[in-house]
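Task 17 of the worksheet. Students: predict the tertiary structure of the chain below and write it out as structure tokens. Keep your answer in the requested format; marks are given for formatting as well as content.
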Amino acid sequence: MSSVVELQPSTTVTAVQGPEIRNTMAKQDHDFRELLSVLTLEEKVRLLSGESFTAAAGVKRLNISPIKVADSTSGVRPSQHDSDMTTACFPNTTCLASTWDVEALEDLGEKLATQAKMKSAQVVLGPNINMHRDPRGGRNFEAFSEDPLLAGHLAGAVVRGVQRHGVGSCPKHFVCNDSEYMRHYYNVDQTVDGRPLREIYLAAWSHLLRVCDPVAIMMAYVFSLFYRGHYDLIERVLRKSWGFKGLVMSDWFGTRSTVEAIKAGLDLEMPFPVHRGPKVIEAIKSGQVSEADIDERVIKHLDLRNRTRESHADADAEEYSEIEEATNQTARKLAEGGIILLKNENGTLPLDPNASAGLAVIGEFGRDAVVTGGGSASCNPQYRIPPVDALKDVLADASRMTFSQGVKTRRIIPLAPVPLLQTPDGHAGVEIKYINDSSPDSPILVERREKPSVWMMGEFPAGLQVPGSCIELNTNFKCPSNGKHTLAVRRSGAFRLYVNGEEVLTGPQPDVTTEQFIFNHILLESRVEMAMEEGAVYAIKLVVQSRDRETVGEPTPYAASLCFEEFHDEDQTIIEAMEVARAADTSIVFAGRDGQYESEGYDLEEIALPRNQVALIKAVASASKKTILVLHCGNPIDVSAVVDDVDAIICAHFPGQEGSRALADILTGNVNPSGRTATTWWKTLQDAPSFGDFPAQKDNGGDLTLKYQEGLQIGYRHPKKERVQWPFGYGLSYTTFEYSDLMVAVSGAGSTITLECSVTLTNSGSMAGHEVVQVYVTPAKGSRVWRPEQELKMFTKVFLTPGESKTVSLKEVLRVACSYWDETEKQWRMEEGVYGVLVGQLHSAFTVSDGEHWDGL
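Model answer:
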């Protein structure tokens, strides 16, 4: 093999991508594997399942402790499933991906490990490396990108950081967990040896395992062992071809079989035995499973204990203070690095913090900080800093700023506020009665709660009959204002709502799955509008029946919540916002989404801004001299209705507890924006390549099937460039960077031949800042199959002061840079020919003179 140009040996910044890395973890003082021979069969089987929502089982007799696990990358949640404990809240994963910063994400991993130890967790359940296939994907905000190489390398950095000090990392979800709608039940129309699966969806995992060695991997629901190719996925691909030696676990309630799951290579069923436990013992006795099969699975559990240590919160006050400071610095740095400047015209940004010009901040997110998305990737932050306060801290004259709330953004009605509630006997909050149908006049339990909500999952007060009971909630509600307000009920069963003894709202048992009950609360909600008077006290009684049958294979839900929202005249608030904007020189409008919209458990229905937000933005832009739009989101947003109305647009993501400070520094130029899109922003939902094939739909046989008709043409790989609002890898800066002297070479021999690129990068502007160097490879002409016009193969992030230049050198294994999956041979193929390299506006070429096939990473 030979190159068209030779690489010069000068390197100032070097980023290595490709060579296999196996990080060393803290070792236990003894080898847990030695206990295999003394475990009884029942104890072995016990290890193959969880014992709770937050722990895999142990064996007390042999001092094999349970393995405590915790979600996730944006913030390590406490081991107690329903705890209100706070935690350090980092930016969402798409914001992390938008940093394109491997070093920063490795630092994040170390901070996550510290947080895990403080919560006594031994394994962090993350990161999530599913692909951003469709901009409606509910969990896209907690995944990295549409590009497998970017996702794999950044996730690998997090894993390395987490595992450096004895905490384990469990990336998820293997594979194709790209849609949340009915994710337990749909199938995928792709095969293990199809190009889309190999080059996109499995490729992210391949890249991950080339740069790190996670202790465990979590399966996706869609491939949770009822899919015909599950054996191929775990045993043939993950273990034999890729050499993964860690533990493979199910997602929660994701196991669908007993014998098949064990033989397919699933080591751990979570969160507790459904298809295992006694069923495994029976399968062994009947000869369907051998004890050797069980031993093979148990070894993975013992190995995981060898590679991790039990975690305990043992820091003293001084150490804890130092940990907090370092953690907050990391959270802020990540938010700064991930926030993206998408548009900046008419010299709008940066704002001058020392100017006397008026500044209007408009939108409820300007006062109520958005920090995270919803579901298992959400967390309760240690603090929330309102963006208006963060801006005041960086402005020389805070009095120049005014605020207007604007319109409401919400899917569900909030819980009735505790200060407005009083129990019938005069205490704050609500009275809860648990009543069996067989004894309606004799509650088995009466309790008081502050919040007007009961939320149970399979664990009920002793003696409560389920089915066959009800929850009765009583409170006296003091109305805060005159108006036609909204009362709402969220519940698991049929209900009746009474106000002053009069029935005002009833509803049937919601037809929802357990997962929809947990996450998609809008499906549980019924509302009624009522004219109410300020200061008046209303006696409210809510009665919710238990569900009419127990849920099979999952905990039975039981819930009752009383909700309230004051009347809000949005036409008037828009008028008020216009008046505030008209009096200012620049207006900042906060809009987009929060965790009610982007969450585990359901997908978005559309990606356009809500109509009331569009009306607000247009009204403010018509009145303001200059308008800045700040968008909170995990998924791209269709901004076509307002993009021409505003002067500047910033994507702030869900930026974590330090996000407001990071955003204030970027708005005022204290920090140069350096975030780059990790996913293509299409102009409209209809322009997305997956539109029409997302989410899953019933096929001719009546089964839910998720089709991947776009194949390889996901995101920037799609040729439809004219329908893109902002492309993959895009982001503006307050300074300028120039590329020069691109050099490309191929060197080495055998399977370790590398493609090396060198380019000189110069900060030709007036502000210090970071630039993301992106290297794309174009396919050889005359390829026997269709290939994308270009594919990302290397990247790094570089900091330069004004006028500074650096030579940046990157390298990648040639096989990775040039190959595609041959569906006929079921192997990777690298063809001979001349390939192109694109870096910035520069291009070069290199020649591959020997084609080859291979399997594996």
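Marker's comment: Residues 387 and 685 are 30 Å apart (CA to CA). Residues 317-338 form the longest helix (22 residues).
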